[in-house]
Design goal:
- This protein is an alpha/beta fold and 907 residues long.
- The protein contains 29 helices and 37 strands.
- The strands form ten sheets. A seven-stranded mixed sheet has the order 14-13-27-26-25-15-16, with helices on both faces. The protein has a six-stranded mixed beta barrel with strand order 32-36-33-35-34-37.
- Helix 13 runs antiparallel to helix 16.
- The N terminus is likely disordered.
- Bound molecules: iron/sulfur cluster.
- Iron/sulfur cluster binds next to helix 7 and helix 12.
Length: 907
């Protein structure tokens, strides 16, 4: 059962119920339900073309006419509220006559081309025509004709098939919050406007395609590849961001040809552009299809036997000569839990080192370090669906609309329901359009901003004293004294945010009953990222916004399974389930489970591994599904370190920038080719299912690890991933109650300790894992680099909506590259004027680490003195500019969000 269903049921028990009769059947529904919803809840069919239960009632198509006793004429079921004692008839001769007339009228102006229409067999209008047996048409006459414009790379539109149900217009406005389209004109001249071309203010999410009941809107990449009746549907989870949207892969002839999503899911059936249209990388001709071994400077294809034998031989030799700690491994936030579990087990049990890490080091290691210290757990405390329960949403350091698009839709939904939105971000990110308060602080001044807000909350006694006393430690005079210097005036001088706004935001957040904080890398990717996390935790603790529904501290995880890969122990100091490798009792437990002696000291973090490689103490690195040659900071050094390795193995689905440097490249399987589980940002473990076969001899990543481990002398014999999942439950009690069978219907949120446990919607109900939540005084530290004469701009890096991470997958998707083809730098108009720059001008951007050349986009998104570059593009890799040595002292996360740069116009 999904989260939304669970929440729905909780609510239902609290609301007034009414009883009505539909077709002589007595039914009870919550007050406020429409007749159509009441019928649906009880599986009574009423036809409709314009209704979608996720949208506001519209009453446009008039197919849902029903007769209510006592009313003079039929009414539309979608707009008429059910009332207590109401008697409804959904079908009689007059109603059916009227419905048939509606269908005839629609068909009078509709192309009669079902035999070649892509949507045939899946078209609601075709179904109705069949049901009402409409062959001849009494109303045949003038028809609307439209020129076929073809500028939109994602969506094929045939407006002659549009029945003006208005669903596309409503979904774009109500759900997506974009309102890129509308219905223009009246009567026969009505049409969807402006045309669906790429000049629209369109996010290409394709929600309009998903709700269109006819063939008017279709995914362009799917055309001609298989109608609905010809495809196999496979339920799985999106391979991109951490929202964990459920995907239905439509498969024809071993190819994914279309992606949809069901309504009863964590994402309510909505997807973003990447989830809906970013699937063509699976069948890309660029996929790796056979193992490659570097011979004489070039790669040569090899058999699996040869490649695995060679890797085992080289790793064994390095281990014998230099010890196991001369080898390191990077696991993958894109791979399944089962694969990541095996990977860290391989590193620890077969190689004998704790040198295992992954990209979480570069995104949320400060969250894990910070929240685990103050709460005892470092994950998102509450759930995505609970966003709708927030009175106030405080989004800080998160470009949610672009990085977690489906979570942003929940925020927009919450706004429509009356919640207030505070955003703190140095850039005018797209969600700012919905904000009640926008705090545009200088990059790197989060602690000053948060302490400023807390100063106001303490001074005005807006704290939750009962919560503080019963649930926390450390809210003492010393803690309060630490906040004293952060008066609104002082916070303004550090952050640049007007003091009145700081006061307003503090009062709004602290004054609400349920306030949720949402943050991402704008908070964590700093040389003081852990302090930022402590400050966020302090704010939630002092206002009692923990341990209850619709509140919490919610770090939004970036990649599809970055939560899971961390949970699985792909970090150098913890086994699966955040159990410390240095605690003897825990180590003994894992030694017994894995039947091997394990190393007893913390391993190296990812940046430490690269430093060790450069120094020569780390000799070999095994990288599964990561691309540090583009994603890591200070790329010049990163590449130098990778090149310094004696032996580099890369296991991936494409020849990445990192794979190009490897000695052996192994072809792995994409998400659509494997079975297992991903854990999304809200701790929801969900099933991943195989839809297609891998290309060539590419192998499942778990199989590759097992084969290699066997050759290294440590057998791991699992005949199915379900066995690995069972072992994970033995290793980590929080997953002990889960099984593949239990995960079938929407997944379960950990902790789920027993087979009858429903999973945990929100954490810390009744207490914290560490006992009491801990306040931690933090002081503002200036960033490692401050603008100066030579490097006057602050560079901040991040994601865009269309591309993903290092572009390994999205840059193989044609339409995505059509709308997002090249790197760019965002620069404020005032700064652009001073540099005589216009949008489109070529600029050289230099930091103390290197230079890149790219296109300028002049925009008010960044404030004056701040520039932004997305890190997706190898042609102008933003990480050439970032620092690899400015690390958070606790989490060792680099400061991706603040570097100083110079911008120069080049001819
Ligand atoms: Fe996939 Fe994230 Fe988009 Fe959902 S929001 S479809 S998980 S990329």
């Amino acid at each position: 059962m999904t989260q939304s269903k669970e929440l729905g049921e909780v609510n239902e028990s609290r609301v007034n119920m009414i009883t009505l009769t539909i077709n002589n059947r007595q039914i009870s529904v919550p007050a406020g339900t429409t007749i159509l919803d009441a019928a649906r809840r009880n599986e009574i069919h009423i036809p409709t073309l314009c209704d979608d239960p996720r949208l506001e009632p519209y009453g446009g198509c008039r197919l849902c006419l029903v007769q209510v006793k006592g009313m003079p004429r039929p009414v539309t079921a979608c707009t008429t509220p059910a009332t207590d004692g109401m008697e409804v008839e959904t079908s009689n001769a007059e109603i059916e006559r009227q419905r048939r007339t509606v269908v005839e009228l629609l068909l009078s102006d509709h192309p009669n081309d079902c035999m070649v229409c892509e949507k045939a067999g899946d078209c609601m209008l075709q179904e109705l025509a069949y049901f009402y047996n409409v062959r001849e048409n009494r109303f045949a006459g003038e028809r609307r004709t439209y020129a076929k414009k073809d500028m939109n790379p994602f969506i094929e539109r045939d407006m002659e098939k549009c029945i003006l149900c208005g669903k596309c217009v409503r979904v774009c406005d109500e759900v997506q919050g974009v309102a890129a389209i509308d219905i223009a004109n009246r009567g026969f001249g009505s049409k969807i406007s402006p045309p669906f071309d790429k000049d629209l203010n369109c996010e290409f999410c394709g929600q309009c395609v998903s709700v269109c009941p006819t063939g008017a809107l279709l995914g362009k990449e799917s055309l001609g590849k298989g109608r609905q009746k010809d495809v196999k549907e496979v339920e799985t989870v999106c391979p991109y961001c951490g929202c964990g949207c459920n995907l239905t892969l439509h498969v024809s002839r071993n190819e994914v040809v279309r992606v949809t999503s069901k309504q009863d899911t964590v994402n309510e059936g909505w997807l973003c552009v990447k989830g809906r249209f970013g699937f063509n990388f699976i069948s890309s001709p660029d996929r790796l299809t056979a193992p490659l071994i570097r011979k004489g400077g070039a790669f040569a294809e090899a058999s699996w036997e040869e490649a695995l034998g060679y890797i085992a031989e080289r790793l064994t030799a390095i281990k014998s000569k230099h010890g196991p700690d001369a080898i390191g491994g990077l696991a993958s936030a894109r791979c399944t839990n089962e694969e990541n579990y095996l990977f860290q087990k391989f590193m620890r049990a077969a190689i004998g080192t704790n040198n295992v890490d992954h990209c979480a080091r570069y995104c949320h290691s400060s969250t894990v370090a910070g929240l685990a210290t103050v709460f005892g757990s470092g994950a998102m405390t509450n759930s995505i669906a609970e966003i709708e329960k927030n009175d106030v949403m405080f989004v800080i350091g998160s470009n949610t609309k672009e990085s977690h698009p489906i979570i942003a839709l929940r925020m927009i939904k919450a706004k429509r329901k009356g919640a207030k939105l505070i955003i703190a971000d140095p850039r005018r990110v797209p969600l700012v359009r919905f904000a009640d308060i926008w705090l545009q602080h200088r990059p790197g001044t989060d602690v000053a901003l948060l302490n400023g807000m807390m100063h106001v909350i303490v001074k005005e006694n807006l704290v939750d004293r009962a919560f503080i006393e019963s649930m926390t430690d450390g809210f003492d005079e010393e803690f309060k004294k630490n906040l004293e210097p952060y008066s609104p005036e002082a916070a303004e001088s550090i952050t640049g945010v007007p003091k009145d706004l700081i006061v307003k935001a503090a009062r709004l957040y602290a004054g609400s009953k349920k306030a949720g904080i949402y943050y991402t890398m704008g908070i964590t990717q700093h040389a003081h990222g852990t302090d930022n996390v402590y400050a966020i935790a302090n704010l939630a603790l002092m206002t009692g916004n923990l341990g209850k529904e619709g509140a919490g501290v919610n770090p939004l995880r970036g990649q599809n399974n970055v939560q899971g890969s961390t949970d699985m122990g792909c970090i150098p100091n913890m086994y699966p389930g955040y159990q410390r490798v240095t605690v003897p009792a825990i180590r003994q437990k894992f030694e017994a489970l894995w039947n091997v002696k394990l190393p007893d000291k913390d391993g190296l973090t990812a940046p430490e591994m690269l430093m060790a490689a450069e120094k020569g103490s780390l000799k070999a690195l095994y990288i599964m599904g990561e691309n540090p040659a583009l994603s890591d900071p200070d790329l010049t050094h990163t590449v130098k370190a990778l090149k310094a390795l004696e032996f580099l193995v890369v296991q991936d689905i494409f020849m990445t920038e990192t794979a190009e440097l490897a000695h052996v490249v192994l072809p792995g399987a994409s998400f659509a080719e494997k079975v297992g589980t991903f854990t999304n940002t809200e701790r929801r473990v969900q099933r991943v299912r195989r839809a297609v076969n891998s290309p060539g001899t590419a192998m499942k990543d778990s199989l590759i690890i097992m084969e290699l481990s066997k050759r290294m002398g440590y057998e791991m014999n699992y005949s199915h991933t379900v066995e690995i999942f069972r072992e994970i439950g033995q290793a980590w009690p929080a997953l002990a109650g889960m099984s593949y069978a239990r995960l079938e219907d929407g997944g379960i949120q950990w902790p789920c300790p027993t087979p009858d446990h429903p999973g945990t919607q929100y954490l810390f109900k009744g207490g914290f894992p560490r006992g009491r939540g801990r306040f931690t005084a933090v002081t503002y530290q200036p960033s490692h680099e401050e603008p100066d004469k030579e490097y006057p701009f602050i560079l901040t890096t991040g994601r865009t909506l269309f591309q993903y991470h290092t572009g390994t997958m999205t840059r193989k998707v044609r339409p995505i590259n059509a709308v997002s083809p090249e790197p760019f730098i965002e620069i404020n108009p005032q700064d652009a004027r001073a540099l005589s720059l216009e949008s489109g001008a070529k600029v050289r951007v230099s930091s103390r680490r290197g230079s890149i050349t790219l296109k300028a986009v002049v925009t008010k998104r960044p404030g004056k003195g701040v520039v932004f570059i997305p890190f997706h593009f190898k042609e102008a890799a933003a990480n050439i500019l970032t620092s690899g040595t400015a690390l958070d002292p606790v989490a060792k996360i680099p400061s991706f969000k603040v570097s100083t740069v110079r911008v120069e116009k080049v001819s």
